[in-house]
């Protein structure tokens, strides 16, 4: 019979197919480095002048890859309305991107990155890995705005810091982000509650909430680390710079600082007394946030100023979202109650190998014009780094008003920290935080898990460290 | 089966010239033959080399560098990435998780798929010709439905179903009076996260393998079943002693494909538990790889993980082949006494005749 030969052929074919499928796993290795052949920055040049400080060629275009997240991308598109007034025919072409690093990585390796990138979102590119491929932006801050004032003079203080790495200022962070705790003013007034200033007051508020069948906090599985932000903010206010520097420099035992431990202990009590909406560690974070903003089952939510815009469609009518600075541990903290974490966010970078780096800088200058900055605050309900573009009524947004108020009250007592983003630790930290907030891990376990994550980075020689002081 | 007959005959004729002349007769390289080889051998081979073999070799090389991913600079670090990997408790946990997936997902999926296939093809009344249960074609279509939905959507839908506060699952369970499932976090509890993920993968794939098995069972001659029935074999006995041995090649192939899918599982876990689940209990190697590459910018290290994943996949495939061989299947034609090969031979002959 001839069956055997036939079946053998089929089997060989199947085996080949299986081997191919197995080898497909190797494809996960992504694109490989190629030789450096980009002749960056050699694009068309124009004459430098007062209205064209970077010498952009007229009628050129700028390719901008903009993170399509909470703020969308239309605000960069909007600059086309002001660009032409200074450089004739300059146009920015916006490409919305969600996964910045995976999508742009091949273009960096290939030496043809976009001219302008909003390097933001969950998949942002770590700055240390691309530092030597970026244009320094000092000349941007020396240039004048479209209104004729020096840019360095019209922005909030310290906005250069989050965009400076190893003394190189490479990222312009456009949006001013204020971190705090958010609540519904309407709901609090109805019940005669006041926002807590200390953790003890928060504990009391939690008891009162329970009487009404509500919870104090809610957390979502992708955003459990918002409580890490709240923890660190409170601890820095309590213990001052030594807390911040310990964490930033990944020091041994930095998570065991008494200020941090004090806050963790209160949080642990809150978890044990069931003041967190149960099931958070299995809930998608925006659904969890809606439990607070729409169902009003939870009273407070720690987050950044983007929260109002993010939950716009899932917020109860007349919610009056308002923020207040993170609670202090004792009534004698190292920094005053009004101090808070605020940082310029949405880092815009200009790759040196792009085709039109001068044009990209010109787009940034246009974004810092009064018209474009006011447009951003109005449509996104968030302040930019340009001072004085938010009117007193905050375009009808209580959250925007409270951000400006908090910033003014804090004055110079503004701090920030970057270690989580710098070393890409958020994903690892989410694990113990979800366990802790679900009640499966106690404060001690949380501390040692967080310490282990920091230790691992410190002891890994292949990771570049940034010394913070 | 009928389709294979012409192929088989052609194949059998091939060695004839060699047998007659003692030496294979060389044919002239006519234009026809050259173009035929180029089109049907050269092109696929080139595609295979360029898109499979070369990346394969490159990956092994990059796995031994400290490449950061965004610039062309790198240093050669030898096997450092691999030693680091096997001291990394998170990676080891991911390895354990994918091992669990590779064991349970194929086993449960194929058992269920076989059950469905048998019911649809052979589960009918025991009188008259061998046939499926009533409405077999309806069930066949229904069981295929989940497979039509893309994996990412399956993942997202189930993520909503599992939602502790607003999910359908808890709603139904509490509706039935099981109050302890009020706000129960299926994907947030260490004990349930992995089984919940496995359930979704199995739910999504059973239909496809059921259809695959139905096709295989239809190739088994009905006479065999009739004979077994006359001998007094029940449905379970028929399934274990006739159906399973007769379609064992299909089962082996399905097992390996499913194993590869389960070792990856990226789409499902990313949709349901993007951060590795409670205490990393659902973290897969592919997720870890993605995180190490794009969040930590250690592309060299991530590539090393990809290499290990590929090795694990190959080992898995080899294990399945080995088990199949040891239990009497595969190409062990010398072991004709094994019941499996006998049944298959019988099936094959029946199919041919």
Automatic annotation (TrEMBL), chain A:
Gene3D superfamilies the UniProt entry points to: Periplasmic binding protein-like II (3.40.190.10)
Keywords: Lipoprotein, Signal, Transport
Cell compartments where the protein resides: Cell envelope
Signal peptide residues on this chain, from the entry's feature table: 1-27
Pfam family, any one: SBP_bac_1
Main location: other
Entry superkingdom: Bacteria
PROSITE patterns hit by this protein: PROKAR_LIPOPROTEIN (PS51257), TAT (PS51318)
InterPro entries assigned to the protein according to its UniProt record, in alphabetical order: Bact_solute-bd_prot1, Chitin_NgcE, SBP, TAT_signal
Region (Disordered): 29-54
Family label: Belongs to the bacterial solute-binding protein 1 family.
UniProt-recorded name of the protein: Lipoprotein
Species of the source: Streptomyces pseudogriseolus (Streptomyces gancidicus)
Automatic annotation (TrEMBL), chain B:
Region: Disordered, residue numbers: 1-24, 329-353
CDD domains xref list: TM_PBP2
Membrane topology: Multi-pass membrane protein
Transmembrane found in the keyword field: yes
Annotated compartments: Cell membrane
Ranges of residues in domain ABC transmembrane type-1: 95-320
Highest taxon of the lineage: Bacteria
PROSITE patterns given in the database record: ABC_TM1
A GO biological process held by the record: transmembrane transport
Alphabetical keyword list: Cell membrane, Membrane, Transmembrane, Transmembrane helix, Transport
GO cellular component: plasma membrane
Transmembrane residue ranges: 34-64, 98-120, 141-161, 196-217, 254-273, 299-323
Recorded family membership: Belongs to the binding-protein-dependent transport system permease family.
Protein name: Transmembrane transport protein
Source organism of this protein record: Streptomyces gancidicus BKS 13-15
Classification of source organism: Bacteria, Bacillati, Actinomycetota, Actinomycetes, Kitasatosporales
């Amino acid at each position: 019979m001839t069956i055997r030969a036939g079946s053998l052929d089929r089997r060989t074919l199947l085996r080949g197919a299986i081997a191919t499928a197995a080898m497909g796993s190797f494809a996960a290795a992504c694109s490989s480095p190629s030789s450096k052949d980009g002749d960056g920055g050699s694009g068309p040049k124009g004459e430098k002048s007062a209205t064209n400080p970077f010498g952009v060629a007229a009628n050129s275009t700028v390719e901008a890859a903009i993170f399509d997240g909470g703020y969308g991308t239309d605000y960069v598109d909007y600059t086309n309305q002001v660009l032409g007034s200074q450089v004739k025919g300059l146009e920015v072409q916006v490409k919305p991107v969600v996964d910045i690093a995976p999508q742009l990585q091949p273009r960096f390796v290939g030496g043809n990155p976009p001219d302008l990138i909003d390097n933001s979102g969950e998949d942002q590119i770590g700055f240390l890995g691309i530092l030597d491929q970026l244009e320094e932006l000092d000349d941007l801050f020396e240039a004048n705005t479209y209104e004729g004032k020096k840019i360095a003079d019209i922005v909030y203080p310290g906005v250069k810091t989050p965009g400076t790495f190893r003394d190189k200022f490479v990222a312009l962070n456009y949006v001013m982000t204020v971190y705090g705790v958010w609540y519904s003013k309407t709901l609090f007034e109805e019940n005669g509650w006041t926002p807590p200033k200390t953790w003890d007051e928060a504990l009391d508020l939690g008891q009162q909430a329970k009487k009404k069948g509500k919870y104090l906090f809610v957390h979502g599985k992708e955003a459990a680390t918002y409580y890490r932000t709240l923890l660190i903010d409170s601890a820095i206010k309590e213990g001052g710079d030594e807390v911040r520097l310990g964490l930033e420099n990944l020091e041994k035992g930095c998570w065991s600082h008494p200020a941090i431990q004090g806050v963790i202990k209160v949080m642990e009590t809150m978890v044990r007394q069931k003041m967190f909406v149960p099931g958070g560690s299995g809930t998608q974070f925006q659904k969890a946030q809606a439990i607070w903003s729409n169902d009003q089952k939870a009273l407070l939510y720690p987050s950044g100023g983007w929260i109002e815009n993010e939950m716009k469609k899932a917020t109860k009518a007349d919610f009056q979202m308002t923020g207040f600075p993170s609670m202090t541990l004792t009534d004698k903290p190292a920094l005053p109650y009004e101090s808070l974490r605020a940082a310029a966010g949405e880092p815009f970078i200009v790759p040196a190998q792009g085709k039109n780096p001068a044009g990209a800088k010109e787009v940034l200058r246009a974004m810092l014009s009064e018209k474009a900055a006011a447009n951003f605050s109005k449509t996104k309900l968030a302040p930019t780094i340009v001072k004085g573009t938010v009117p007193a009524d905050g375009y009808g947004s209580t959250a925007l008003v409270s951000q400006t108020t908090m910033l003014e009250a804090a004055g110079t007592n503004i701090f920030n920290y970057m270690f989580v983003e710098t070393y890409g630790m958020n994903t690892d930290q989410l694990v113990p935080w979800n366990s802790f907030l679900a009640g499966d891990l106690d404060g001690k376990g949380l501390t040692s898990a967080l310490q282990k994550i920091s230790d691992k980075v410190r002891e890994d020689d292949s990771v570049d460290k940034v010394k913070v002081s | 089966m009928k389709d294979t007959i012409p192929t088989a005959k052609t194949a059998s004729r091939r060695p004839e010239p060699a047998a007659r002349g003692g030496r294979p007769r060389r044919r002239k390289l006519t234009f026809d033959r050259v173009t035929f080889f180029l089109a049907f051998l050269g092109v696929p081979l080139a595609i295979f080399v360029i898109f499979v073999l070369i990346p394969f070799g490159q990956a092994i090389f990059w796995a031994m560098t400290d490449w950061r991913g965004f610039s062309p600079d790198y240093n050669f670090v030898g096997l450092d990435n691999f030693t680091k990997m096997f001291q990394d408790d998170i990676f080891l946990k991911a390895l354990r998780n994918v091992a669990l997936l590779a064991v349970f997902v194929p086993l449960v999926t194929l058992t269920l798929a076989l059950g469905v296939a048998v019911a649809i093809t052979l589960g009918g009344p025991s009188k008259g010709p061998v046939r499926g249960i009533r409405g077999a074609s309806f069930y066949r279509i229904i069981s295929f439905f989940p497979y039509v939905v893309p994996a990412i959507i399956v993942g997202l839908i189930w993520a909503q179903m599992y939602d502790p506060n607003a999910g359908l699952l808890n709603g139904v369970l509490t509706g039935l009076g099981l109050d302890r499932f009020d706000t129960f976090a299926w994907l947030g509890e260490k004990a349930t996260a992995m089984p919940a993920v496995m359930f979704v993968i199995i739910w999504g794939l059973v239909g496809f393998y059921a259809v695959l098995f139905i096709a295989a069972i239809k190739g088994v001659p009905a006479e065999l079943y009739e004979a077994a029935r006359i001998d007094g074999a029940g449905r379970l006995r028929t399934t274990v002693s006739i159906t399973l041995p007769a379609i064992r090649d299909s089962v082996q192939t399905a097992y390996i494909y499913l194993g590869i899918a389960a070792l990856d599982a990226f789409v499902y876990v990313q949709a349901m538990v993007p951060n590795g689940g409670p205490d990393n209990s659902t973290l897969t190697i592919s997720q870890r790889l993605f995180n190490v590459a794009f969040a930590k910018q250690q592309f060299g290290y991530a590539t090393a993980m990809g290499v290990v994943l590929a090795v694990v996949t190959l080992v898995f495939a080899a294990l399945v082949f080995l088990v199949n061989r040891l239990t009497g299947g595969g190409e062990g034609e010398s072991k004709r006494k094994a019941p499996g090969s006998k049944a298959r031979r019988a099936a094959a002959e029946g199919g041919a005749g």
